[in-house]
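Researcher: For the annotation table, I need structure tokens for RNA ligase 1. Please keep the output clean. Sequence:
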Amino acid sequence: SDSSIHSRYFGVALCPRGQHFQVVASEELSPRALESRLESAVATEKLDGTCCYVSVFKGKPYLWARLDRKPNKQADKRFKKFQLSQKSLSEFAWNVEEDFRSVPDSWIPAHGVQHQNRQPVPDENGHILGWVPVENNNKQYCWHASAVNYEAGTALVLKPHADNRELLEISAVPLVELLEQTLELIGTNISGNPYGLGSKKSPIHLLVPHGSVPVRNTPSVNYEQLKKWFQESEEGKVEGIIWHCINGTLLKLHRHHLGLKWPDGDTFLSRRPVAVSFDWTVYDFEVQPNDLFAAFSKLAGQRFEHIQDIQMET
């Protein structure tokens, strides 16, 4: 996946809830899904974390955090009033310089964001998708920073094991190998920690490349069958599914689109076995005692029955 973070629902209806709209799945596939040959797409797990991106900053590979430019209070009020009028969004006029909250100078728009007169154009939700580099001294992104080490140029990555797809693997991956990819940061202090990673005393945060965790035993793309799969199968204890189509289109289905709760008990990912397979001692510099890379290095070679069973030394 690149940094566009754009996906479409496989079939949706917008249902008013007060002054807002709730996205729900319809029982028919959208024209976009049909054109994209959804039946031959690769289904992967939609993870519940926060989106990240790896790209060059200050001349070397850096992790970037998702930061969308959003309208200020007055512009947001004007936009929501316009939405309720049900007129075409093309009729709404934005002034990006005046209508939007400021962002750091290092902020960049995501790939795929439209531009007009050299200014990024807001999407249908009134946001401009983008990124900001994760720097070690920025407390706002301290959990992002815990999953990377710029001195070593590596990231803490969770993905399926190369030799055993049933097994997950935690390893240190060179950031240069992740350039121009998007990933999901999951862990103790992200999105309520649905995967049970770490603890308040010893938090764990990991990066998962988008599209790297296949969904197993998915039913045919049928509303009732999919809903039953989410409700009754062990593999269906996921936040959602992302279909990667041959033409590059990404199609997304979230449990909430089917009126289902999330999380609902133990998640499928949290119950999967995991191996820790990297050696931090090969890097020729000292690390801090509370460094997450050093902590995982002490667990190198170990295997855990469930990913939520990993406990760090305190």
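Researcher: And a one-line annotation?
Model: The CA atoms of residues 108 and 216 lie 36 Å apart.
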